[in-house]
Structures
1.
Amino acid sequence: DSYKSGRPCWRRYPFTFMGATDLLSIIPVLGMINNKLSLTKIFRLVRIVAILKYSRYSDKDDLMLRVLKKNLSVIKTISIFMFLYVYISALMIYNIEPPINPSTGEETFSTFFDAVYWSVVTLTTVGYGDIYPVTLLGKIISICSMICGVGMIATVSSVVTAGIVEEINKINQSKSNVMAKVTIKGVYQMNGPKPFQRIIECSQSEVGYYTQLAGNKSKQAQWIQANFPGADTSRGFSMAFNFKYNI
């Protein structure tokens, strides 16, 4: 926006996220001045965030952002449903399962956080196996969680994949329909010489027609008669073509 409006962007940049990141990443230089400031070296980790700046030069990152923005409502809906399911299943398993495994005597779901941890691990079908239900009802809840997890993760993946394929098809289609400007200048006879100039925007596939037109006098005469009714091409005419591709 600063470039478009003509305002100097250096005044606004220090107050942006990437500006603050750059500032924090140079703080470790103070450790070279005084050893007491050596703890500032921890800010070197902030430099990792600076990698995000290079995303502006990558079309792939822009493509992914466009896909996520376009399907944001679907992703939000699935995320809310996953959050609710994690909470409800964790609440159920915490109240159903005993805090101590009667077979091994080990702690199972002693805290609600353990139940949430189990719910997330089961919903994502990771299944570490460090915490697991021992009752029949708990196992049924686990089966439902795994089935729902496969469905929700597959839904998100399919939505994002379909969005990426759609964006790639749009890019390929735009490349195949590269617009070109064909400037046609000429003179025809109709109660005297009549100069004309036409600037025609056409797709790349249509350029072939005008390329053939430029080398065929009979087709040029037909084109003049079609575009300028009453033109007398038998008394002579001239046409010049200039092709400019917007690639």
2.
Amino acid sequence: MSYLVMECHPGYAVVLDSDGRFFKVANRNYQVGQTVTSVIKMLEPDTPQESRPQSFAKSRMQIFAKSWMRTAAAAAACLFIMVMGARQFLIVPYGSVRMQINPDIQMSLNRLDYVIALEGLNTDGETLIDGYSFRWKSVEQVSDDLADRAIEYGYLTDGGNIHLTVNSSHEKWKAAAESRILLELEVHLGKTITVTAGDARMDEQTPDDDRESDTGNPSHPNKDSAPVSGNGNTSQNVIVIPVGPDAADEAVNDMDEDD
């Protein structure tokens, strides 16, 4: 029987017999493509053996599968890191800007200085932001838009004031954001409206505060309040009407004696 040498290795060779079977044989200085008639097989003749092409293809598929799994795992890890990083920059609040006119509004900002939440802190603030879309807008654009809406709604006129309060645990970002928004509003509004920054103003009350002050102020008496004298003390002139047959005469006599 003749054998065709298909592969040569330092310790063995792979040959193909005339029946199409592959055998691993001792390498006796064979050359690829050489035809020999006698070989020393390294396997017992009765030992089952896969054909070389099938074994080779299976090995290549296993290597490819392992490589693909490693690549997929690395890609998933990179994607997770990218998503978490994007979340930190786009979704997580990095600071806030409170804008006090008479409407009181607070903006939450992400790391890229885009507004991710807008809240009215009093009734006028809720009215001012009603119907306004702040999505994917920078804090400078939202500040300008809210100032324009305040002018349009009559909350802000010439000589008025806008007070800004920037809050963040990141001091450098806080200082930079405050300076940038101040400059933006001053350029946008001109000199007719002043823009200040610092701690939140305490001179503005919410509607609930106004109602509480009205009910507790003596200048707003209700039907149960006692009369107040000119010096601020509750009047003590109380007339006691006695009860009895001569009640009317006694009451008249007492009033004459007081006079």
